[in-house]
Amino acid sequence: MTASSPTDQPTPQLVPEAFAERAQAIEREVGRVIVGQTALVRQTLTGLLANSHVLLEGVPGLGKTMLVRTIADVIDCAFNRIQFTPDLMPADITGTNILVEDGGQRVFRFQPGPIFANLVLADEINRATPKTQSSLLEAMQEHQVTVARQRFPLESPFFVLATQNPLEMEGTYPLPEAQLDRFLFKVMVPFPSEEDLVAIMERTTGNEAVTASKVCTGAEIVEMQRLARAVPIAPHVTAYAVSVLAATHPDQPRAPGLVRDYVRYGGSPRGAQALVTGGKIYALLDGRFNVSIDDIRAVALPSLRHRIILNFEGEAEGITSEAVIRSILDAVVAPTVE
Q1: How many domains does the chain contain in total?
Q2: Is pTM, for the whole model, over 0.70?
Q3: Model confidence at 61, in pLDDT bands (50, 70, 90)?
């Protein structure tokens, strides 16, 4: 399969098939290492193809680190892992100027930090202080790092996969809403089934190590990102995504009873952007060049679960953001096409 030039005009007959074929090859190779977890792999890949970032939440030992490392191997990109700890400093992530000898003179030279990679795993991001967490904000939003009034661009593709542990919360610093909003998806990592556990034991305790082959390059990923943005979306589908987002706010007329009673604040406009962008990629992964209402509904949970803030009553009653989103999907009626 030959990759088309990014400047070529995509055709509805060819581009979705090529996009889906390449994405399926990536998922297939990742599946050689990561047992099961098809939804997790699909949503993580969607975040990468959307030129955005993904937050994973799950207990330790479920293969979160192995997932991003395997994706980096499959697409032949540079990978760095940052273990977040309470004593980690921003310069440990972005890099800093160091004093070096150059031609008999001492000069300051920038030493890049681990953020300078195509795929960055921010492991246990909620263990670092807010000051260190915020050092990721510029990199995630602007794809650049500013050190001592100098800007250093990050090479594309640039993808941050952050993880956090929901069990051990002692000594952690929960991410503020402004930083959570920068993640396209928040994906919950489920515990594997017994059948998957058997397959994991066979792959990890035997003599032969299972490895994934390279099926894609970073340049091809950038091309796929551009093609994803070129997917047209009908006005009524965009209107549906906006209606779903509006229904997350308790003061909006579309809000169902669960939102009015238990939600303090709903999603930002980035939530609607995540619905539309994720819907475009899900359509392409299905071989289609048009976005449907079902595509928007399919990405609603990972797009909105970290953007809905429950009030005190909601937390006391044990209401989950997933339950709120499902009530919204049940309440918001898809607009009719004239």
Answers
A1: 2
A2: yes
A3: confident
